[in-house]
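Thanks for the sequence, V.! I ran FHA domain-containing protein right away. Repeating your input here for the record:
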Amino acid sequence: MLSLKRFCGCCFVSESGSKADSHPREDKIHNQNDITNQNEGKSLQEKKSSKQNTKEQPKLKIVIIDSQELEVGREYIMTSSGIKNKTQRINDGCIYGGCDPIINDIVLSEKEKGVGKRHFMIQYDKKFKNKFAIRDLGEGMGTFIRIENPLHLKTNNIISFGDSHMIISIDFNEGSKITIKFIDGPKVDEKFTFRINDCPINIGRMADCSIRFDDSSMSRYHCFIGFDNAWYIQDGDGYKPSTNGTWLFGEEFVEITDQMVFKAAETLFKIRLDGEAKDN
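Predicted structure:
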């Protein structure tokens, strides 16, 4: 007959020292511990995965750099889902700016000249990683993007500088020519037509400019138009930028680049992308 002796409160061993079957209650405790450990491991893995996804999510920071009514230095963080810590709307990958506090994420002051109820939008394009774009929404006096690098021109582009706005028309049927019509400012309704051999087409206050202005807010050589397989415009004289900038009206979506500056009504914003858009 096999003789057993007590080894602990719930187990027995044989005289030869081998362990017999454990008590059923102990098996239950062991099983519960295994399940708990598995759940804890799964939970930690899920948290780690969630943290990684958040870290990898495309992100930009929008900073107010000049305003008569709003706090300069105020920041807004946007991810591919929309504005961070937003409570007003669904996560649709868009943010809106304007003077109506109910329908906008970035609220502009009603006191600003030319402000719209819903003035502009910034959208994340999910088809292309890390791509954000901005456009005007047709209310107020427009949303303008500062031209920092040579910009290829298209028909119906509206360019702004000083007190002037001009619209571009390009004709490739007659050896490529460009027509500029001013729609606002001191030269309103005036038209200027140029061909490739007229380049560079300088615009500014100097006497030798192709289009000359008596406007103290403009630089001597404020901007110029050239041709390099396509018509383009560049701010400044090619060596240094103008004082107050040359601006593209954001009638269509414009891809956002790092350090881009744009203005809506009387407020100026700067955008920083991804790694530079860090949480405070």
